[in-house]
Amino acid sequence: MGDHPDDAKQQPVPIEGEIGILARRRIEAAIIAPLYEAMRQEIGEERAQAILDRTIREAAIAAARGFAARTPGGTSLQTFRDLQALWTKDDALTVEVLAATDERFDYDVHRCRYAETYREMGLGHIGHLLSCNRDGVFCQGYDPRIELTRTQTIMGGASHCDFRYRFVQAEDAGTADVPEARAGSKSVSRQDAGPERRHRDDARPGEAGASGDRDM
Hints:
Elements: H1 21-43, H2 45-69, H3 77-82, H4 84-88, E1 93-100, E2 104-112, H5 113-120, H6 127-132, H7 134-142, E3 146-149, E4 161-167, H8 195-202
Antiparallel strand pairs: 1-2, 2-4, 3-4
Helix pairs in contact: 1-2, 1-5, 2-7
Pfam families: ATC_hydrolase
Organism: Labrys wisconsinensis
Region (Disordered): 175-216
């Protein structure tokens, strides 16, 4: 690795001393929970969830762009993989890596402490909004050439989460930028998305479906 001419340009963002994502999510959830409940009582559950979903997706994109801006030499699927230590920190995920190349990053999650944490906090019904639905927009915010396909999540009741990332060259990528309003539409799981979201996905048959926490 040390002899590769691009090594100096592809160093990962330093994560030493960074708080793990699981710890962040617990803190965030404790703050969000009473705010969400107040919204739900005022405007109803459907609208409250829509607002929460949109806000968290936008935060995920902003966080991803922040990581990208701090990546020396530019982003790639390798630098994206380097960030995963933050999501697995504190034994947050039990992961089985199936492929890790310059163009593919495939893994299954067999235990998700994010899902366990939200359920323990009584927030399992919005856990997919707090965590899972960030993933597709986070990778696109970090680098629009990275696309996620996922068909199921532990949060949604499946036995495991199936993350399948692909690095697509710019001319083939689904978007050159990440539109805030429909960011991550390729990556939102039909299982995790609400009825309104699934309806919109049905109207765009050319887009692949998948959902989940990857944003910071």
